């Protein structure tokens, strides 16, 4: 699903995506831009690695290496 609107994180108008760190059943629609999604994903991966937790399969394990 693709939706154009204002990103909940940065406020930019862009194509919106679902948040990787919020369960899918808790999200009624996509609400963040790709840049903010990549940022959230990288933070989530880093936090899970620090805690020794498994990385969810829907997450790019190399998320923190995204080029800007």
What brief labels describe this structure?
single chain; 68 residues; 1 helix; 2 strands; elongated; disordered C terminus
Biggest sheet strand line-up: 1-2
Please tally the helical runs, counting DSSP H or I stretches of 4 or more residues: 1
Total beta strands = 2
User: What about the largest sheet?
Assistant: 2 strands, antiparallel
Return the domain count. Answer: 1
User: Strand pairing plus helix content: what structural class?
Assistant: alpha+beta
Q: Please, what is the average pLDDT?
A: 85
Alpha carbon gyration radius: 12 Å
Uncertain parts? 63-68
Morphology: elongated
Percent of residues in beta strands?
5-15%
- SSE order: EEH
Distance between the termini: 25 Å
Could you estimate the helical fraction of the residues in percent? 25-40%
Descriptive account of the structure:
Residues 48-68 are annotated as: Disordered. This protein has 68 residues and is an alpha+beta fold. It has one domain (3-59). The protein is 25% helix and 12% strand. The chain has one helix and two strands. It has one helix at residues 34-50; strands at residues 3-6, 13-16. A two-stranded antiparallel ribbon has the order 1-2. Strand 1 (3-6) and strand 2 form a beta hairpin. The longest helix is centred in the middle third of the chain and has 17 residues, at 34-50. It is elongated and about 35 Å long. The model is unreliable at 63-68 (pLDDT under 50).
Architecture blueprint of SSEs:
Elements: E1 3-6, E2 13-16, H1 34-50
Region (Disordered): 48-68
Compact summary:
The protein has one helix at 34-50; strands spanning 3-6, 13-16.
């Amino acid at each position: 699903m693709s939706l154009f609107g204002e990103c909940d994180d940065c406020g930019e108008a862009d194509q919106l995506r679902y948040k990787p760190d919020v369960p899918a059943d808790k999200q009624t629609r996509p609400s963040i831009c790709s840049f903010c999604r990549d940022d959230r994903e990288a933070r989530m991966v880093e936090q899970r690695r620090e805690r020794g937790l498994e990385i969810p399969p829907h997450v790019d394990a190399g998320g923190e290496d995204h080029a800007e």
